[in-house]
């Protein structure tokens, strides 16, 4: 297979998927919910058939959620961006939180309106390790085919790591995980790197770590490029790589589709779609947490995320996250934008990466 020839030997972080315990598992649906539940030890009492039959086809709820006593209201209407916040609310302890179903699988992809306890048969996301952090050369960029000239360079993300001799606890604010305090603005780092003198001599000393980040887009003709902002392509003409910091792409909602830089002769516009996210984590006491959230359409389109919402990328790694090519719920696919639809409704939510120090704060 192609995977065996290309990336089958690469280290990866496996995302959880449906693991059947019966020879013929079935997708969760109202029709299955009205049948006797065979082999499901966690199904307690099915709701009355009249309750399930009262839903319209467009309002189809999933059988496992109903069989475990969850109200269909818990699925909620597709929100306008608040769905991801609902995921962090306190969970009610139940069997569904502890063990995913091994009898019924999710017929679509995981998203903000899914009932908990259902997993798809396969993941539409992929997270691979291409090598160590040193395998990426910031002076040559990504040495892969089909990139536009000068657009294969990842963006630097400079972070402060507290040194062991540091006594000022306030400096740790840059890595507290709060959205208001990271990424560290580059202008606050001037004069600190590699210098023991200056204004900070004798009273503050910061150890620095440089992460590299790249949002890669690819159009229908296979042209690839890294973006340095919602409306900008990386363009590195000389040695030294990209000069733009990664703070802009990390602190804003990035578009899922952008106009292709090569439109061709036709009148119909061509789009490039967000295909991959590259992250280079240096060999330093630093952990990068990956939390992708994609809204592939205007409300009430749900927010899609991998089967594991937060993944920690350990130090010393060159990682690539492959985004799904298409997004679909149990009700059908989310179609790409048409000519008259604003691209701003199709986006990857800000906060996709979070940085924390891996070492405990010295007392």
UniProtKB/TrEMBL annotation:
Signal peptide: none annotated. Keywords: Nonsense-mediated mRNA decay. Residues 17-99, 172-203 are annotated as: Disordered. It holds the Pfam family Smg8_Smg9. InterPro entries: SMG8-like. The keyword Acetylation does not apply. The keyword Lyase does not apply. Residues 50-74 have a biased composition (Polar residues). Involved in nonsense-mediated decay (NMD) of mRNAs containing premature stop codons. Belongs to the SMG8 family. This is Nonsense-mediated mRNA decay factor SMG8. It comes from Characodon lateralis.
């Amino acid at each position: 297979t192609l995977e065996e020839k290309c990336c089958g030997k690469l280290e990866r972080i496996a995302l959880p998927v449906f693991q059947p315990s019966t020879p013929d598992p079935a997708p969760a649906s109202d029709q299955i919910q009205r049948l006797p539940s065979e082999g499901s030890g966690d199904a307690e009492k099915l709701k009355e058939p009249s309750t399930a039959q009262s839903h319209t086809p467009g309002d189809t709820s999933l059988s496992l959620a109903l069989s475990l006593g969850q109200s269909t209201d818990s699925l909620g209407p597709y929100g306008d961006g608040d769905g991801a916040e609902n995921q962090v609310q306190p969970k009610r302890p139940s069997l569904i939180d502890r063990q995913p179903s091994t009898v019924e699988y999710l017929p679509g992809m995981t998203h903000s309106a899914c009932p908990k306890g259902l997993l798809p048969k396969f993941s539409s996301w992929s997270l691979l390790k291409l090598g160590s952090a040193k395998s990426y050369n910031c002076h040559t960029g990504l040495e892969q085919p089909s990139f536009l000239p000068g657009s294969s360079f990842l963006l630097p993300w400079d972070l402060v790591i507290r040194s062991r001799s540091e006594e000022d606890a306030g400096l740790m604010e840059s890595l507290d995980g709060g959205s208001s305090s990271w990424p560290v603005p580059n202008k606050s780092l001037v004069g600190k790197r590699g210098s023991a003198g200056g204004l900070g001599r004798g009273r503050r000393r910061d150890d620095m770590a440089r992460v590299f980040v790249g949002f890669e887009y690819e159009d229908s003709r296979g042209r690839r490029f890294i973006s340095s902002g919602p409306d900008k392509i990386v363009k590195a003409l000389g040695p030294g790589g990209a000069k733009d910091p990664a703070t802009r792409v990390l602190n804003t909602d990035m578009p899922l589709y952008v106009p292709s830089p090569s439109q061709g002769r036709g009148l119909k516009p061509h789009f490039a779609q967000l295909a991959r996210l590259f992250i280079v984590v240096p060999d330093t006491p630093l952990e990068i947490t990956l939390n992708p959230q994609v809204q592939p359409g205007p409300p009430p389109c749900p927010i899609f995320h991998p089967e594991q919402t937060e993944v920690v990328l350990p130090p010393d790694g060159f990682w690539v996250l492959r985004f799904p090519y298409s997004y679909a719920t149990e009700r059908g696919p989310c179609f790409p934008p048409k000519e008259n639809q604003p691209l701003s409704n199709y986006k990857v939510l800000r906060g996709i990466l979070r940085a924390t120090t891996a070492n405990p704060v010295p007392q």
